Amino acid sequence: MSSDRYRFSFEKVAADYERARPPYIDAAVDWALERLGLREGSRVLDLAAGTGKLTRQLVARGLHVVAVEPGEEMRTVLEHELPGVEALAGRAEKIPLRDASVDGVTVGQAFHWFETEKALAEMHRVLRPRGGFALLWNHFNQDDPLLGAVDELLRARDPARRSRWRDRYDSQHFGALEEKAFYEKRPMSLNQLAAWVASTSRVISAPAEEQMEIDREVRRLAASHRGTVAIRTYVVAAARLS
């Protein structure tokens, strides 16, 4: 796929990705697990787990997590950060798990990269009856003055914004989508914000000169920043159909 240039771009900066990306809002994670009926001891597949940003939040809630991640460098960081978690190489379009082997599937910051139809079919295959999936994204919140300005800066540069996975959503395997956005104020320094921007696929894949130009503009936008931003975590959930 042509999008693989971006899909696997994070391999170049796995350690930076781990340091830069903010965790998901806890209330958003709790809502997702509630919608899926997951509780302590449930077996969950964290698909395209990356460095384990969402994985660690699932583990902290007592879930039995299997992390599947195609990128070797990303998976290496995950294994270092979460040595007790089973981590497997694999893609969403060919999940290395048995049929009906997990109670739920989570995807953090990645579903827009998947081949939608194939991924949904595979997710349906590995889920047990009454299971479901939850997709989570941390966005540059447009309602926050600083993050909104950063969002505008990146809008034309971000290929994920052109994702049309909803147009290919397969209602044969899963029910209606439930959606909810969560907001939380958090401290964030200028350097932390610049690192978050630098960890996005479009910036990672850009020529060095363009990367420096974006970094300069982000720092200019944040020149009068007072240290707190309103993070937005967006969640989509759906139940498996029999």
**CATH uppermost class:** Alpha Beta
Euclidean distance between termini CA atoms:
31 Å
Helix segment count? 10
In terms of per-residue confidence, which ranges show pLDDT below 50 for 5 or more consecutive residues?
1-9
CATH architecture: 3-Layer(aba) Sandwich
- Largest beta sheet: strand ordering: 3-2-1-4-5-7-6
- CATH topology name, in short, is Rossmann fold
**Which range does the strand content fall in?**
15-25%
Order of helices and strands: HHHEHEHEEHEHEHHHE
Q: Provide the number of structural domains.
A: 1
- Overall morphology: globular
Count the E strands: 7
Helix content: 25-40%
The major β-sheet equals: 7 strands, mixed
C-alpha Rg, in Å?
18 Å
- Summing up helix and strand content along with how strands pair, one would put the structural category as alpha/beta
Determine the CATH superfamily.
Answer: Vaccinia Virus protein VP39
Description:
This protein has helices spanning 4-7, 14-20, 26-36, 53-59, 72-81, 116-126, 145-155, 190-198, 201-205, 208-221, and strands spanning 43-47, 64-68, 86-88, 102-108, 127-139, 178-187, 228-239. The protein is of the alpha/beta class and 242 residues long. The chain has a seven-stranded mixed β-sheet, with helices on both faces. Strand 2 (64-68), helix 5 (72-81) and strand 3 form a beta-alpha-beta unit. Helix 7 (145-155) runs antiparallel to helix 10 (208-221). The longest helix is centred in the C-terminal third of the chain and has 14 residues, at 208-221. It is globular and about 55 Å long. Residues 1-9 have low confidence and may be disordered.
